[in-house]
Amino acid sequence: MKLLAVVICLSWIGSIWGRACYECDQTDAACSDPFKEDNSLKNNCSNTATYCIKTAGEFQGIKAVTRACDDAGTCAQQGSGCLTVDFGGITATQCCCNTDYCNGAGPVRLMSALATASMGFAAMLIAM
C-alpha cells in the first residue's frame, strides 16, 4: 500500500511541475521523422501542461511534424495514445503521452512504452 502512495505522490509532483517535452516544427529539420534526440529542442513546459504532443501530417506529398507541450489541453480529452484523421486529402496523426520527452518517440515506440508502463502498474497492484 505504501508503494501505491509513493507512485501517486510522484505523479502529482509531475503535475505540479509540469511536463518536459521536445518543441519544434516543420521549419526545423531536426524535428522530422525519424527523430534524433536533440538537447536544443528540449523544453520545460508550463505547470498546466501534463502531456506532450506530436502531430505528423501529410498533404500532397509534403510532410510536416510538430512536437510540443500540450498547453491547450487537447490530450486531456484524448488521453495517451495516437489518433489518425483524414480530411480533405490531409492525413494527420496526433500522439499524446505523459512522460518527459516522450514526444520524441514514434507511434510504435510510444505505444509500446505506454503498454509496458500499464502492465508494470497492474503487476504492482496485483502484488499488493
**Series of secondary-structure elements, N-terminal to C-terminal:** HEEEEHEEH
- Summed over residues and divided by their number, the pLDDT gives a mean of 77
Class from secondary-structure proportions? alpha+beta
Any idea what the shape is? globular
Low-confidence stretches: 3-16, 108-125
Strand content: 25-35%
Distance between the termini: 7 Å
Cα gyration radius (Å): 16 Å
Instruction: Name the strands of the widest sheet in spatial order.
Output: 4-3-6-5
- What about the largest sheet? 4 strands, antiparallel
- Please give the oligomerization state of what you see: single chain
Number of helices: 3
Helix content: 25-40%
E-strand count: 6
GO biological process, one term: regulation of synaptic transmission, cholinergic
InterPro entries: QVR-like, Sleep_regulator, Snake_toxin-like_sf
Keywords: Glycoprotein, Signal
Signal peptide: 1-18
List keywords for this structure.
128 residues, two-stranded antiparallel sheet, 6 strands, 4-stranded antiparallel sheet, 3 helices, alpha+beta
How would you explain this protein's 3D organization?
It is a single chain. This protein has 128 residues and is an alpha+beta fold. The protein is built from 3 helices and 6 strands. Strands 4-3-6-5 form a 4-stranded antiparallel sheet, with helices on one face. A two-stranded antiparallel ribbon has the order 1-2. The longest helix is centred in the last third of the chain and has 21 residues, at 107-127. The protein is globular, with a radius of gyration of 16 Å.
